[in-house]
Amino acid sequence: MGKQTFWAGIGLGAVAGWTIAQQLWAINEVSQKDAHRSLATERNRGAPGRTFEHSTETDAFTRSHIIENGIERISYLPKQRKHQTPLLFQHGMWHGAWCWQYWQELFAQWGWESHAHSLPGHAGSPEQRPVARCTLDYYLAFLKREVDRLPQRPVLVGHSMGGALVQWYLKFVGDLPAAVLVAPWASHRMLTPENLWRVVQNDPLGALLSAATWTARFGTHNPAAAAWMLTTRGAIFSPEELHARLNPESMLVLYQHNPPYWTPPERVNTPLLWLGGEKDQAVPEPQVRQSAAFYGADYRMVSGAGHNLMLEHNYRSTADTINRWLAAQKIP
Fold first, then answer.
1. Which CATH superfamily is domain 36-328 in?
2. Whole-number Cα distances in Å, 282 to 73, 258, 292, 301
3. Which terminus of the chain, N or C, has fewer Cβ atoms within 10 Å?
């Protein structure tokens, strides 16, 4: 019995030491990051040139899919363009440009030009640094590059972590014609006791894998976990189909969207639409509602929807809500 107690103590000590070392490493990593410095530095180290190109046409739009200089881009150009301002879609954790397909098709039918890109290490964009070392300021530099390459400032649409990047853009870069935040990260912090306990309680293996690998494995390590975290019954993709598309993600991004590394901007002049899913497990609807109130944003709760609003059974009505809101803002 004494030997068992001894080895149990050794094991617990090793786990505790590993956890403490990880926390110290994470704090050191995010403490050294500076959004302004990242924005002023060319971050793209992708292979130069165009490595993939494919286009398709329908009666309503032309779809262009390219990978150029290490970045995947999917663009929809309407045959009958009704708006001058383009839409730029920014995906969240684990996802890529692919997740916007169904909304991009709808908005093209409604006369909107739209573009979606994949951050490095996501979908068709090759990894440029180890995923575990990716941070929000690193991703922000790529988002700014996508905004700058468009001939006209876009309406920025961000989902989940992409919604956090929209907030970072508005604070560190500037205002836009409008922005739509789709089940976005909270305005002030993400690592709350409530959020951490919900993950540990519902997906203990995912929480353990996240701690062991320092990548955000919770909610994505198997189809059931992905379905619990991201969707509801009747979503476009089955749990198996969704899980097969997901990529690893950094834990540092979650650390960085918390004080003292992040505080929301005191004033935003950009018109904002904030969308929350009634059954969201990743960012619970009350947190989304509170964040919208902080920013003074227009808020809509999507009934019966989970976190991936653009892939839920009611994705069409949610897109229509956005389209109507943009019309009310008189976006040209």
1. Alpha/Beta hydrolase fold, catalytic domain (3.40.50.1820)
2. 26, 16, 16, 15
3. N
